[in-house]
Amino acid sequence: MLICLKKYQISEIYTFLVKNTQILLANRPEGMVKDTDFEKVESEIPPLQEGQILIKINYISLDPAIRGWMNAGTTYIPGVPLGGVMRAFSAGQIIKSKHTNFQVGQYVEGLLGATSFAISDGKGLKTLDLSIGSIPQHLGILGMPGMTAYFGLLERGQPKAGETVFVSGAAGVVGSTVGQIAKIKGCKVVGSAGGKEKCDYLLANGFDVVIDYKSQNINEELKKHCPEGISVYFDNVGGDTLDAALLNLAKGARVVICGAMSQYNDMQNVAGPKNYMKLVVARGEMKGIIVFDFLDRYPEAIADISKWIAEGKMTSKEHIIEGIENFPNALRMLFEGKNFGKLLVKI
Ligand SMILES: NC(=O)c1ccc[n+]([C@@H]2O[C@H](COP(=O)([O-])OP(=O)(O)OC[C@H]3O[C@@H](n4cnc5c(N)ncnc54)[C@H](OP(=O)(O)O)[C@@H]3O)[C@@H](O)[C@H]2O)c1
Predict the structure, then answer these.
(1) From ligand 1's centre to the CA of 259, what distance in Å?
(2) What is the pLDDT of residues 299-332, one digit of tens each?
(3) Does the model's pTM come out above 0.90?
(4) pLDDT digits (tens, 9 = 90+) for 84-125
(5) Beta strand pairing status for 249-257 and 285-288?
(6) Would you say the CB of residue 261 lies under 6 angstroms from ligand 1?
(7) 176-196 burial: b if 16+ Cβ within 10 Å, else e
(8) Is the same domain home to 131 and 253?
(9) Is 299 within a domain?
(10) How far is the CA of 261 from the centre of ligand 1 (A)?
């Protein structure tokens, strides 16, 4: 037996013994996702081809965009096909490599899916520097959501010191990163989030004012706390919050449309902004952002954010759920406001 084992690398033995667990798209959801919209399957891990690597996934990232990817059709990226592995950012360690640019032991991150093992040709993968942040941080504040906050605020929002920046969904990874960067840039930072615990956390982490949109009137609070008007509104939620922000714009305001948490479960009937004519009065503008347009500039953002973390100017909060089988429930948590920080499934 011992002689027989010596013929194989440890990682090869491992993949003989272990099955791959994956979460597939079983149905196109209507409204909030249900457990029956997903199927958990187990399969053998196929042998590696030349130019491929095998990754043992440690964390799967739950991002609101996943809900959109479950719909039919194409937006900025095609929907997941029925029966396909759920698309998700995930990260893990290379345990086998037939690729000259990737070595066993390296940690990588990319659109590897909701899967416990992934085979990749390396395209679109980012190798992780764990000296600047943990794997969860590389999927959050140093990953796609952090890049969204950085480029959405700085490129689309163009904040200037002394201006007021309002960000909704402020307790999430994108929102809290936007608020903290705006503070570093010398702005007054106003956020909105659901519930006292999230609001208190933000006040203790650099926000000047936080509105609990579940118990307070957003328009009245914005009027009270933004007497000079809002110069940058970073919109993560859409709906009533977007309308309240439009009522309170400063002259020359920039409204950054990043996402619309309040609308994703019914994209056929998206509520348009009632108060868009306020853009005319403010001589303002409304711009969208898709983070993938900034792919080639990610290193610049990672350098700045990791420096700010090291200097103690930024913090991050992660919310970790154990077990790939909890992927459907974790996805629902985003839409129920049950996550507090960057939401991840740990395998
Ligand atoms: N454009 C891009 O390239 C891009 C890239 C990444 C992310 N995004 C967008 O950025 C936004 C934030 O993403 P994230 O990853 O940071 O998620 P997140 O904020 O960590 O999680 C979602 C949060 O949204 C809030 N929410 C849920 N339903 C809501 C509703 N009906 N009204 C108001 N708030 C609601 C909840 O917080 P509360 O407890 O405060 O309600 C929930 O915790 C999303 O809209 C996402 O689609 C866009």
Answers:
(1) 7
(2) 999 999 999 999 999 999 999 999 999 999 999 9
(3) yes
(4) 999 999 999 999 999 999 999 999 999 999 999 999 999 999
(5) parallel
(6) yes
(7) bbbbbbbbbbebbbbbbbbee
(8) no
(9) no
(10) 5
Mutate to test the pocket of ligand 1, among 237, 257, 266 (most ligand atoms within 8 A of CB): 237
Taking the CA of residue 289 as reference, the ligand 1 atom at the shortest distance is 1
User: Within 13 A of 156's CA, how many CA atoms are on the CB side?
Assistant: 24
The answer to whether residues 229 and 247 touch, using CB atoms and an 8 Å cutoff, is no
- Do both 102 and 173 map to the same domain? no
The per-residue pLDDT for range 191-217, each reduced to its tens digit, is 999 999 999 999 999 999 999 999 999
Domain membership flag for residue 3: no
Testing ligand 1's pocket by substitution, the residue of 202, 236, 336 carrying the most ligand atoms inside 8 A of its CB is 236
CA-65 nearest atom, ligand 1: 47
Q: What is the pLDDT of residue 306?
A: 98
| Residue numbers of the domain that contains 229 | 144-293
**CA-to-CA separations, 252 to 151, 152, 230, 288, in angstroms, rounded:** 19, 17, 9, 17
What does the alpha-carbon distance between residue 248 and residue 246 come to, in Å, rounded to a whole number?
Answer: 5
Residues 200 and 169 reside in one and the same domain: yes
User: Do 334 and 93 form a contact (C-beta atoms < 8 A)?
Assistant: no
In a domain, 162, yes or no: yes
Q: Is the CB of 339 under 6 A from ligand 1?
A: yes
